[in-house]
Amino acid sequence: MNKLSKLFKKIKSIKITPKFVFKVFLFLLLFALYHVCEYGNSWAGSSRGAMWQIGHSVIPYATLPGVFTSICTFILIAFVVAYGKFGFYFSITILIIRFIRLAISIANHNLMVLPGVFMSVVALVSVILIYHSNAQTIRTQLKHRKELEEFTKSIITAFTNCIDGKDAYTNGHSYRVALYTTMLANKLGVTDQATLDKYYNIGLLHDIGKISIPDAILTKPGKLTPQEFETIKSHAQEGYKILKDVKIQEDIAAGAHYHHERYDGTGYPQGLIGKDIPLVARIITVADAFDAMSSTRSYRKKLPLDYIAQEIEQYAGTQFDPEVANAFLSLYEEGAFDNLRSDEDKVEN
């Protein structure tokens, strides 16, 4: 029953994409070609003694079953290569049916099918070998991919620790922003785990440009001068410069580059407006502002959660994407940040 529910769940999760349509078309095409070859095999086998004339040459029809059977074998291998485990079991099922049919023919003393038996054995062995070879290749690729993901994760973690380590007041900021980013993305309907993982990594590195900011400015307790503020603002562009050539993960520089853009176009560094700002950056903008307000900084203490919610609601449509702001407010109403409220109560007591 559990397997059936998993199967139905998997069927429901199928998305009709061009790739999916192509794979269905290819499957039907291969299936049709296989049956054409099987029919040609049967027809040629029943044409005993007949000859096929091509120009000045003649070919006995008796040789054609071997040709058709070979083509059938290639088609079965194509099923395995194109469809993996499903293609393997589908090919095995076809071969079992073929063996049953050949066994019935032999039982009826039709020894003309013996070459077909031999070719079917060859087809069976070929399908099994190809499947196991592909499975081994896939396992190797998955192992290398996992190792690469672990390496990428460790590098991102190292960079994140460098970023947060520059300021004791913001220690852990990048991790919290990454967490809030995935929470908001999920609330907005992003359910694909690969995308959520990508957003988490982008969130971790959104402040990487601060590595280039002098500590005296970054941790200054008082008000920044206009020149110092311009230096702080440069971390967005500097973060983009650091990450722009990293090809191992798509859009990895988007958070660093655009998380200070504002929905109304008054942000920096490029003054992008509305949906021109990448979605992940619009999400990080809210996550970043929320963590900044809910954390104690060198220039002020943490703000009450209710006040933060009012601020994000007030600036929805100007500083923040209204949809992302509404997602935050929904999480707030659901109590997703109640642990922060509990911390406030502890401080007050």
List keywords for this structure.
349 residues; single chain; mainly alpha
Order of helices and strands: HHEEHHHHHHHHHHH
How far apart, in Å, are the first and last alpha carbons?
Answer: 53 Å
Q: What shape does the CA trace take?
A: elongated
**SSE-based structural type:** mainly alpha
Largest sheet, strands/sense/barrel: 2 strands, antiparallel
Mean pLDDT: 83
E-strand count: 2
Strand order of the largest sheet: 1-2
What does the radius of gyration come to?
A: 32 Å
Number of helices: 13
What is the subunit arrangement here?
single chain
Task: Report strand %.
Answer: under 5%
Task: Give the SSE layout.
Layout: H1 2-12, H2 18-46, E1 51-54, E2 57-60, H3 64-107, H4 114-165, H5 173-187, H6 193-204, H7 215-218, H8 226-243, H9 254-258, H10 279-293, H11 305-314, H12 322-333, H13 338-348
Antiparallel strand pairs: 1-2
Helix pairs in contact: 2-3, 3-4, 5-6, 5-10, 5-12
Can you describe what's shown?
The two termini are 53 Å apart. It contains 13 helices and 2 strands, in the order ααββααααααααααα. The longest helix has 52 residues, at 114-165. β1 (51-54) and β2 form a beta hairpin. Residues 342-349 have low confidence and may be disordered. The protein is mostly helical and 349 residues long. The chain has a two-stranded antiparallel sheet. The radius of gyration is 32 Å and the shape is elongated. α5 (173-187) packs across α10 (279-293).
